[in-house]
Design goal:
The structure is a single chain. This protein is of the alpha/beta class. It has a single domain, classed as Aldolase class I (TIM Barrel). It has an 8-stranded parallel β-sheet. The chain has a two-stranded antiparallel ribbon with strand order 1-2. It starts with a helix and ends in a 19-residue tail after the last helix. 50% of the residues are buried.
């Protein structure tokens, strides 16, 4: 396993003209042929499931399990995708759909589609360019990228790599002053919004990740943190949650100079409280099924949260989006946009920025197909009426 991981990192590094070594993160080197080089190979990836399967064939097991795993028995992880499949659509015919429009406006910025790139950690375990490649992929498709606190690349470098809207995901640290400094740093680099993750005072019980023995390679780190952080490492005797309460989040919101969304909201009560303390938006999320197992799928939690928000702020959601029809269902049930995580990581693994953009384009193509087949010329036409009643089942 150790040999395979080392070979993967070396091969991937050479692909980008880089050599990853403990004492030198960025050293020039010749670039060999990659098993999924941009071009013909990506043409064979016609769905997100194809990308997942292909990425699984070339990624070391411990790295792949880190990406794929959920918490405990992974029921929530499965429900996130399965519940989308149980919702049926109700098409209308003979509407004029000859000119489709998928653009959406969020916080004053127009995006090509309601599909954002969610924050994901440790991208350089999958590709030597890591978050830089994700940012370039977002640039090519005109979407927003939410950079994680636990990125392996500083936000200043990521911001320089893209003209696409860049948001910053905030894991609050025990020292609130450090969190504020981190937010200011992101704003100075050009972040247009913050997403404060509020659902993880501790990581979930990620048994599959633990069984695979995942460890962040020692040559990588988290440049937004002041000390070494190893995700999910808790002894059997000690679980020490960080302290984070509504008053402290309100303080962080007041500190920010850009809109702040709260990520990890699953109930209408919490959504209402979030708006009371000044949140500019809500992200309905169960952390991709990686936090608390057996909570509902996000698509099931979405309608009640959207009803509570009642149009006062944008509601976004992540978790389980794998098809253009999934995006339609989320919009119909109250979301203004969705975020994807694992799918673009598979694209990143296969072909760097080209792979990330390819995943986005696949979803956009399917979204446009779904709109046309439903009889909707734009996103405004996606209302609860496109969801089939239970009597159809």
């Amino acid at each position: 396993m150790t040999h395979r991981r080392r070979d993967f990192l070396r091969r991937s590094a050479l692909l980008a003209g880089l050599s990853i070594a403990p004492r030198s993160l960025l050293r020039a080197s010749p670039a060999p042929t990659h098993p999924y080089a941009p071009g013909r190979a990506l043409d064979d990836i016609v769905s997100l499931a194809d990308a997942e399967s292909a990425a699984g064939q070339i990624t070391p097991r411990d790295f792949f399990e880190f990406v794929q795993s959920g918490a405990a028995d992974e029921r929530t992880l499965r429900w996130n995708t399965e519940r989308f499949q149980e919702i049926m659509l109700r098409p209308r015919v003979l509407n004029d759909v000859s000119a489709l429009d998928t653009t959406v406006r969020l916080f004053g910025v127009e995006l090509s589609a309601p599909i954002l790139l969610a924050p994901t950690s440790s991208n350089r375990i999958l590709h030597p360019e890591g978050e830089l490649a994700v940012a370039r992929g977002a640039d090519r498709t005109g979407t927003a990228y939410v950079l994680s606190t636990l990125s392996n690349t500083p936000i200043e470098q990521v911001a320089a790599a893209t003209k696409a809207p860049l948001w910053f995901q905030v894991y609050p640290r025990p020292e609130l002053a450090h969190t504020k400094d981190m937010m200011r740093r992101a704003e100075a680099a050009g972040a247009r919004a913050h997403c404060i993750t509020v659902d993880s005072p501790v990581p979930g019980a990620r048994n599959r990740e633990e069984r695979a023995g995942f460890r962040l390679p020692p040559e990588l780190g988290y440049p937004h943190l002041t000390s070494r952080f190893e995700p999910g490492r808790f002894s059997l005797e000690r679980v020490r949650p960080i302290r984070l309460v509504w008053a402290e989040v309100a303080e962080l919101i007041a500190h920010a100079t850009v809109p702040v969304l709260l990520k990890g909201i699953m109930t209408p009560e919490d959504a209402t409280e979030a708006l009371k303390i000044g949140a500019s938006g809500i992200i309905v999320s169960n952390h991709g099924g990686r936090a608390l197992d057996t909570v509902p799928a996000t698509i099931d939690a979405l309608p009640a949260v959207a009803d509570a928000v009642a149009g006062r702020a944008p509601v976004l959601m992540d978790g389980g989006v794998r098809r253009g029809t999934d995006i339609v269902k989320a919009l119909a049930l109250g979301a203004q946009a969705v975020l994807i995580g694992r799918p673009y990581l598979h694209g990143l693994t296969l072909a760097g920025a080209d792979g990330v953009a390819h995943i986005q384009r696949l979803l956009l193509r399917e979204l446009r197909m779904a709109l046309a087949l439903l009889g909707c010329k734009d996103l405004a036409g996606v209302t609860p009426a496109v969801i089939a009643p239970r009597s159809w089942r």
